[in-house]
Amino acid sequence: MRLPEEDSVQAPLPTKPQDQSQTPLVPPSDWVGSDAAHSHRRFVTLRLQANIAPNGLSVLRDLDEAIFAQVANSGYPVSHFELKSAYGWSLARIGATNHQDPELHTVLIGRQRLWDCPRDHVPDDTILDNKIVVGLSFTRDQKSRVEFADGSPGLEVDLVIGADGAKSVVKRYVTGNGTVDEHPAVFDGLVGVGGFVPSSYLSKKEPRGRMTVTFGSQGFFGYGPSTIAPQSNHFAECIVPMGDEAVWWSSYECKDLPDTRNFDQVDIRRQLRKRHAGWTDPVIQKIVDDAVVDSIYPTWIMPDLPTWHARGVVLIGDAAHAMQPSSGQGASQGLEDAQILSIFLAHCLEKCHSQSVPHAGAQIPGTISEAVDQASKNYFEMRQPRVKKITDRAKQMGDVKRKKGFFEEWFTYLILWII
């Protein structure tokens, strides 16, 4: 079905024992480290790139070793972020590993590949495809009915999981009566542009595993490898040679929400060059000189929601907590949501079906609806405090990308150098 439109310390969770006899599934060499959606083009939009932090990779490893290996080996391993000033000074080096055993690096991966990898392991006949969800209704026996745009009969289910992003349709039924979004996502005044270039644009001495992030008075610019050399399987545990493609992105402040469908591409490109004129990094200058900008991406963030669940409907990912991209945790927090919710669902449903005799004071759900409600409640209570810490910190980091005066710029450099 389709819906319309680090804090790296993780609470201890039960994990699936790893089967050491299982051979991890490694992607075929013809698409290792590449994304079929952009392999044929020199420049494409940034929407196709995401990063999975070590905590997100750990969730995938707990889920299935084969899926974990497929995701990890489809992306570029990042060991650290190099923070620089527009004048070329190195301000800080921030690690992108978990410093645990085994040590995992952050993985930069095409969004389509990230979706394809787990999808490869789901049987086609378990998915209801080519359906657009337009709303929900509720039956007398406490079930949810999913309504479709094509007018076909609704589908009655015990649980609806809204993973439909910042403009979530499902959220209207969790925080309101379904007619109006009472807690809409908010444009935070930052816009991103970006794309892909040949890795030859980077320095020949480009250190393996590095992503470069540069701050200046007019915004922010980042770049680094986005693919790995053929047959360089790394399982996120080692640094390997880069492939033939690099990614770049630039964020800037914009007071009014831009029209993402109708905008002047020539003017956006002119603004990109103007913002970064005088920045001393030759890689940045080469990229902005040649870049083609065919899309712009306003940043949407979710206000703190009073709840993530109601009446057998639960929100995960951006639908519950869309956050600043500067968090580096968007995809990973969605993965953590899915893991925690599934663990609580399994526990509560097992108790429901076993009809175990409860201990004094214990709450044992007696029906599937009660089990779903209890699991959703436990999920929200565990996840919300952690997510709030990450979103609050991301908002502070996002402010660094805004336009700054002379003193603000130099104060920013000082703060980044101190940390």
Features:
alpha+beta, 419 residues
TL;DR?
By secondary structure, this protein is α+β, with helices and mostly antiparallel strands. 30% of the residues lie in helices and 21% in strands. The chain has ten helices and 16 strands.
Describe the protein's topology.
Layout: E1 49-52, H1 54-63, H2 65-72, E2 76-78, E3 80-85, E4 90-95, E5 106-110, H3 111-119, E6 133-138, E7 144-148, E8 155-157, E9 160-162, H4 171-175, E10 186-198, E11 210-216, E12 219-225, E13 245-253, H5 265-275, H6 282-290, E14 297-301, E15 309-310, E16 313-315, H7 318-321, H8 330-354, H9 368-399, H10 406-418
Parallel strand pairs: 3-11, 9-16
Antiparallel strand pairs: 1-5, 2-5, 3-4, 6-7, 7-8, 10-13, 10-14, 11-12, 12-13, 15-16
Helix pairs in contact: 1-2, 1-8, 8-9
